[in-house]
Design goal:
Number of strands: 9
Distance between the termini: 48 Å
Shape: elongated
Strand content: 25-35%
Largest sheet: 5 strands, mixed
Number of helices: 5
Radius of gyration: 18 Å
Order of helices and strands: HEEHEEEEHEHEEH
Length: 164
């Protein structure tokens, strides 16, 4: 029973690099800080990594210096699977609500989020980098293998004109 629980609480990180067994992956500064100082992980510890293209791997921390962690993928856990092409179009609302919407949409499998500014939208400013970070965190926590695309905000008329 304890082994099953561990599989549900394993630490997962999204990485940009290609993943394959034996090919080292360098984590960025923020991820390195998170692993070392927040999660207290060091050389020899294992975490799961995914990139939205190559599936999910167990990776061993092979080097951990201040602000720089090097991982080595050692075992494929899950192959990359095709996901539905599900879009969520929404009018930006208050910051906290948009962050919550992004996380929940990621958890249910939305592949693309499209903020649309309407005549009655509360705000026309959307921090795409912050939404992308929210989506990554939600994917890491929800066992999802991909991170949805976050589109630049569009005016409602432009959105309708360009709708595929």
């Amino acid at each position: 029973m304890a082994g099953n629980k561990a599989s549900f609480t394993r630490l997962r990180l999204y990485v940009e690099d290609d993943l394959m067994t034996g090919a080292p992956v360098s984590l960025n500064r923020d991820q390195s800080h998170y692993l070392q100082n927040v999660m207290r992980k060091g050389e020899g510890d294992r975490i799961a990594v995914f990139n939205g293209r190559d599936g999910e791997y167990w990776a061993t921390i092979v080097a951990a210096k201040r602000g720089a962690v090097l991982l080595e993928p050692v075992e494929l856990l899950r192959d990359q699977a095709e996901e539905p092409d599900l879009w969520l179009v929404f009018a930006p609302i208050k910051r906290t609500a948009v962050s919550f919407l992004t996380a929940k949409a990621t958890e249910i499998g939305v592949s693309r989020l499209l903020p649309v500014v309407t005549a009655h939208t509360n705000t026309d400013r959307v921090n795409i980098r912050r939404l992308h970070a929210n989506a990554i965190e939600a994917a890491e926590q929800s066992e999802r293998l991909t991170v949805p695309e976050i589109a630049e905000p569009a005016k409602f008329q432009d959105f309708l004109r360009d709708w595929p």
